[in-house]
Amino acid sequence: MSSTMAITVATIWQEGLRAVTNKNKCNNTCSSTNLMKHWMRLCFQVDISGKVPVKVIARTFASGKTEKLVYQCLEELGLPSEKNDVIEKDAFTFEKFYKLYHKICPRNDIEELFQSITRGKSEFISLMAFIDFLNEKQRDPRLNEILYPLYNEKRAAEIIEAYETDKENQLHRRLSKDGFIRYLMSDDNAPVWLDRLDIYMDMDQPLSHYYINSSHNTYLSGRQFGGKSSVEMYRQTLLAGCRCVELDCWDGKGSDEEPIITHGKAMCTEILFKDAIIAIRDCAFVTSDYPVILSFENHCCKAQQHKLAKYCDEIFGDLLLKEPLPDFPLEPGQPLPPPSALKRKILIKNKRLKPEVEKIELELFRQGQFVIEDEEKEDADAPAAPPPEEKKEETPGEAPPGEVPPGEGGDAPPINYSGSTTNVHPWLSSMINYAQPVKFQSFEHASQKNVHHNMSSFSEAAGLNLLKTSAIEFVNYNKRQMSRIYPKGTRADSSNYMPQVFWNAGCQMVSLNYQTPDLPFQLNQGKFEYNGNCGYLLKPDFMRRPDKAFDPFAESPVDGVIAAQCQVQVIAGQFLSSNKVGTYVEVDMYGLPTDTIRKEFRTRLIPANGLNPIYNEEPFLFRKVVLPDLAVLRFGVYDENGKLLGQRILPLDGLQAGYRHISLRTEANFPMSLPMLFCNVELKIYVPDGLG
């Protein structure tokens, strides 16, 4: 095979695999599909003769049932059942595995629901009883009946035909318990509206009208102080759906003077800027076609800034947006372009020279007459001076940081953050357009200037300070231009702050440490999974319109938004742990301060059963959700020692009511094949007490 053909074949494989691995819906398969995936995995774990060992199958159920019970159930299904037996792959069909699963883990939780629908008088659910169940229990009563019609005989009969395996039951249009379980575990009963997993939002609004999935110090794979830098972090972060990555650029010391990326003055390892740019080019538009913003923290001398510009120009090529779009000139009062107009484009965020200075210096540079005067180089490895809290010069002063909560930064001293250089090379300066960082002075000053392509960065502490003093002004600022929030310098352990408080203010780039899979990271990834995981989420209407005022700390309903009530009953779990441990479930809500409820709702502990615990708790009531559009539910499953076993973030906008199986994720938000919760979710319009 020639090298050209080999490259072509490799490209076909790469594109084919990426189409599967980066397809958002692949991370949201239903419970029955997950069971099938696990069965396929078992079928691959064959011995040397190509047969499936019985003991491999038994391990699936070890966290709650004895091996003896598994062997007994295998025998009842007519399969080899001794510990050292093996099963022919052809004999171990999915239907056999599915029956084995129900023998070992009988769904008594669904049996109770089945009996309540039939009122204990029948072995089948009639068509009319099923229609009543679908409309009364499985449907959000807030939905418009024209856009989302009630279930009728035709739709209910289609569901019965799809999931009822008994032909006679199909003929009589009735549902057995087995058919009912298959329906409850199917895509037709997903916990979220599946169309929310595709791109469904309006992508023609100005950039400032979107939340943008953003990363802080993207190159670090560990701590902020003494940590390791890695090119791979850019690949993984972009593939995870991030659209704004950070590059801290410093002068390279070698004889070739290649610019490097590192966390300056923090004893971190370094990577070559060029290598990072290649990785960004290769992965920028695999998960999403919408624009990527490179947030440069530029400490390089002009000679090495020339290399920054050269590599961006040569490696990115046409992907780099070097000129403003004709329809969106860089003028005061002109709105930012929409994501749809910037598809497959890379934007650079870096300081820009004054227009008149840039014009003269760029002309000299193009004529080969631009002279770089001797500069004092900033050393990335120089010992840190007594550090300020702020990182970048475009942030305002802030209140002195108070005591750091446990698990939020430890006792390490704050990192010394020095500002980016203002001595910018004209070629690099000419590549900056819609993300021009400026020193923040005040909201009033920004409003008077009305320059939409100017943006500022704030540490979390500075951002909180502004929220406390000028919340409504902050929201209005974010309607017009972009803001970026980053973790404060005391977070040397790369912990994250809660992003929700800044989303509530409409901040677009709420940048987090992607290498730390903590609760804030989980909230971020769960939220951005919607809209095709494209990295852009349209903010609510009242956070975009200049004629609307919004106070993120208000407790009364927002003008034009109907408050909701949410009730969650955790009924049971399946395959929650591979060990025979006790488990419990916490259900929290995050949103506006008035909507946020944490650590209040928790099931009882079910001891020594990680396989199929039944909680059957009283429902947890979130009585009044002022702003459902910004609220998310979080399910956290823990073992008896408080270790997280699985979690799931579900935005209320798109959550489906009714009895649903909720597949769980790891702490890093990767899908888990078998672990799931069976819950009943009730959603309705909030009605004040006494007005029901």
What is shown here, in short?
The chain has 692 residues and is an alpha+beta fold.
Shape: globular
Largest sheet: 5 strands, mixed
Radius of gyration using CA atoms only: 28 Å
Question: Which blocks of ≥5 consecutive residues have pLDDT under 50?
Answer: 385-411
Which band does the percent of strand residues land in? Answer: 15-25%
Structural class: alpha+beta
Give the terminus-to-terminus CA distance.
Answer: 75 Å
Overall number of strands: 23
Q: In order across it, which strands form the biggest sheet?
A: 8-7-6-9-10
**Number of DSSP helices?**
19
Mean of the pLDDT scores? 91
Helical content (DSSP H or I, runs of 4+):
25-40%
Description of the molecule:
There is one protein chain. With 692 residues, this protein is of the alpha+beta class. 28% of the residues lie in helices and 17% in strands. The chain contains 19 helices and 23 strands. Strands 8-7-6-9-10 form a five-stranded mixed beta sheet. The chain has a four-stranded parallel beta sheet with strand order 11-12-13-14. Helix 7 crosses helix 8 (153-163), helix 8 packs across helix 10 and helix 12 packs parallel to helix 13. The radius of gyration is 28 Å and the shape is globular. It starts with a helix and ends in a 7-residue tail after the last strand. InterPro entries: C2_dom, C2_domain_sf, EF-hand-dom_pair, PI-PLC_fam, PLC-like_Pdiesterase_TIM-brl, PLCB1-4-like_EFh, PLipase_C_PInositol-sp_X_dom, PLipase_C_Pinositol-sp_Y. Residues 375-420 are annotated as: Disordered. Keywords: Hydrolase, Lipid degradation, Lipid metabolism, Transducer. It catalyses: a 1,2-diacyl-sn-glycero-3-phospho-(1D-myo-inositol-4,5-bisphosphate) + H2O = 1D-myo-inositol 1,4,5-trisphosphate + a 1,2-diacyl-sn-glycerol + H(+). Residues 428-544 form the PI-PLC Y-box domain.
